[in-house]
Write a structure and sequence with these properties.
Blueprint: H1 14-27, E1 40-43, E2 46-50, H2 51-56, E3 61-64, E4 70-74, E5 79-83, E6 88-91, E7 94-97, E8 103-105, E9 108-112, H3 113-124, E10 139-144, E11 154-155, E12 160-161, H4 162-179, E13 183-186, H5 196-205, E14 210-217, E15 228-233, H6 262-280, E16 284-290, H7 293-297, E17 302-309, H8 313-319, H9 322-348
Parallel strand pairs: 10-13, 10-14, 14-17, 15-16
Antiparallel strand pairs: 1-2, 2-9, 3-4, 4-5, 5-6, 6-7, 8-9, 11-12, 15-17
The protein binds zinc ion (ZN).
Amino acid sequence: MAFYQCGFFRCATLAALMGLSAARCAAGPGRMPATLNTANITMGGVAYTDARVFFSRYGFKASWTADGHGLRFQSAKVRIGIEAEKRDAELNGVRVVLGDAVVARGGALYLARIDAEKLFAPVLNPAGVTAPPAPVPRVIVIDPGHGGQDTGTQNKALHLNEKIFTLDVGLRLRALLLAQGYKVVMTRTDDRYIALPERAEIANKAGADLFISIHFNSVEGSSMVCGTEAYTMTPQFQRSTSTPNAQRDAGDVMAYPGNRNDPWNAVLGYHMQTRLLGKLGSVDRGLKRARFAVLRLVNTPAVLVESGYLSNNIEARKICTAAYRDDIAEGIAEGVRAYALAITTAKTR
Ligand SMILES: [Zn+2]
């Protein structure tokens, strides 16, 4: 998926809105005021929370890494790793990309409160999410990326078009989800162009409980890059993964339809990336955040899966096999099952 093809949002009025962004971020993701105690601090207009204090609420024991730059947190079933000045973190063996780099201050490591409360909290304790209600998946919309004149990314040497593989995997996934009793709606079932807003509209009109957009990736200049990544909507007041740490985008302060489900997006993205990696054994490129058009505009929890790199000839040749595309579809279906289990468990507590 090239960004322009998939509706990546940017705005040139960033500088004018930086002050507004900072002020609102200080108010916090949960509109909580920054306090004066050392567990919650504000730096550069961003509210942070002491990671040890935050994770201790979930029963985690903390230990420093040997170099003293990172903290490891361990509970009975979950392990978490964070590093000073890094946006990369680990959640149960899966790479998750934070919106703000971890800050070292006074012998402690601090997480942005948006990362703590919109990523870790819902994943660690879905039952603690009070709003919006847990949307138990019954109607699932599958969105095979691209189509028609929009080929998606290409591997010209191997004569591969992304749009062919997204549809193929989408149809395989449809069969799996139908067999599990879900109602499935496809944004396309043949090689046709569907505009990005129309894809979201199809999901919204169908009353979808879950939206899954399927893509394949590419990178220019290096055929060595490979692996799998999952995107969910960037939380309000947070920067997207592709935005550098020192930068804010105008869209950061906006509340889009896709932000209604910020906590469930995190739960969905985590389970999807975990199960896909488990099925494919591919390189973990992380759970990432973006304001792609389809993620912005849907009313339901949504994930966009970048299944693998067509620009990497080794991975592309795997994708060319029906067996590997079956694995991708099964990995996504397993992600749906794990997410649904988390949702139903949360509702019954
Ligand atoms: Zn794509």
